[in-house]
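Quick one, T. Sequence first:
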Amino acid sequence: METKTFPFSIIPNFMKLSKTLFFTCSLLFTQILHAQKGVKYKFGDIKASDFNIAAYAIDSSAAAVILADIGSSDFEGNNKGSFSLLFKNYRRAHILSKNGYAIADVEIPLYTNGTLEEELQNLKAVTYNLENGKVVETRLDIKNAVFKDKINKNLVIRKFTFPNIKAGSIIEFEYKVLSDYVFNLQPWDFQGQYPRLWSEYTVGMPAFYTYITLSQGYQPFLEKTQKTNIVNFQLNDPGGAGATEKYSFNSNVTTFKWVMKDVPALKTESYTSTLKNHIARIEFQLQSIGDPFQFKNVMNTWQVVAKDLLDDEEFGAQLKKDNTWLKDEVALAINGATQTLIKAKKIYEWVRDNFTCTNNNRRYLEKSLKNVMKDKNGNEAEINLLLIAMLRRADIMADPVMLSTRSNGYIHAVYPMLNRFNYVICLTVIDGKDYYLDASESGMGFGKLNYECFNGNARIIDLKATPIDLNAQDLKEVKNTTVFIINNEEGKQIGSMTKVPGYFESNTIRKKIKEKGHEELLKDIKKGFGTEVDITESRIDSVSNFDEPVGMYVEFDVRPNTDDIIYMNPMISEGFKENPFKSATRFFPIEMPYAVDETFSMQLEVPNGYLVDELPKQTIVKYNDEGDAIFEYRISTSGSSISFRSRLVINRTFFMPDEYENLREFFNLVVKKHNEHIVFKKKTTP
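Structure tokens:
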């Protein structure tokens, strides 16, 4: 939603218009009464019989269902010599259980440039309950129960909660948004957290505005139509100190209509970057203004957008300055280093370790770099732009990179839609090698990024607006665990475990140590053995070396077990306990944050006084012939020794929905094998 204001005027070209004093503005008006095939939803028309349905066929387990969600956007002339957008939204929903109460929380986004805000009009919201056979209304107190929340300089949220909701309530709202920002043609979500029986959006686009229409999702349209009519427009031009003049002209208006019926809810599942990438949705980007106006290409090229960003006081302009005030801080950070790579590392570490990130979801400065330095905190864009300024001050090449994190959603590689971006990092090139840096992320090594940043397309904000690709496929978490368990001279079992987790798991371990200390981590390790052990020695390496994964080493004694039968899972706590893919079907892709290569090995001596009664079977499974996923489970005995090895390799991070069933079955087998046991049986005395 956050968008930079387009610097253009849309006052008509006089020689293309005819002046008039008597025509009134005529626009297509989409009345919010339409619904499915002969059925109409009229605000307030609620009957006692509407409460009879306790579950809907679309999803019998749904906690709430949206019965109708209907919207329209139309253009109308205004009194400022230009045009306004009028967006209308009507919704009716049925709350079926307490778990559906969240549907009663409504947020209405409004764009603002800091002085002029889109106007919320004619808001009505009513809760209906059936009491003693009669429909009872509870109206929202518009004056006292609608709140304003300023998200950033361009986004304000008006929000409210329906009053007197309970299981069985029907809720209904409608409102209008009047906007002078024609670039902000409202998008439409046909899908979301709750099933929708009917979702409809109508847009009347005049010929003099050209929009790029972007749609996504996997649901079919019930209706997708367009119809063109000639419409008369009238607008008023204040004309400065002179008298207001009225202008009237005819133009083709194409009315687009999109309808979806019985749209299922889209629920978060394992390995999903964000549902925003996959919900059925349509959105628009203003491309150009045409006849009868003077032609203007509104959607600039990436190069123009990047140049504007570099000149923007809230982004790149402060990087162009001499910034002599950074001299002492740069010298302090470098601490006498002379080699370029070492200087860059020291500056990066100094910023990372001395500044606190206050917000990880920004792309502009909210205060000057001087104040960031003074406060020793800032949003992620401020901290990383400060890093760039310090690197440049040290004569090290550095540029900002703008991206969208995985949880924020994909961006369009072709269209420069800045509102899709939410994150800024630093790129430095030293001796021909690219290093991507994020000093706002505490504990992140030099040249390392959180996997959230690996979301495909991104842009270097330089004069060329160079595109780059930060792909999850390029990340691999390599994890190795080795366990030895033997019988000592006293006949007791003792062992050791060496574990080198992947980089991202290492960061999780570091954070846990920082928050709770080593002892809590050792408790988790001890608990993971699944049998009673006493840790006698432990060591964790590279806790403060953020460039490398940690190394963990423990020695332990196994407490004696005198049961006749001992069950032992050779995976200890390292295996999959359950399948991450629980749903029987999936309608959107599987997006893993990184590839994996996990190996677990064990050398085990059979406990004294026992023999092997059952041993899991070996298996090797390939997901496909290309080896995109491979699972090996090997186990064998030799005398009193057992050798065990499990290896899971996932080489591909993106799987299409039609591959889901096979992937789910693949993980079913992994889970099954990871939960099998070696069975030891006590020897009988002859």
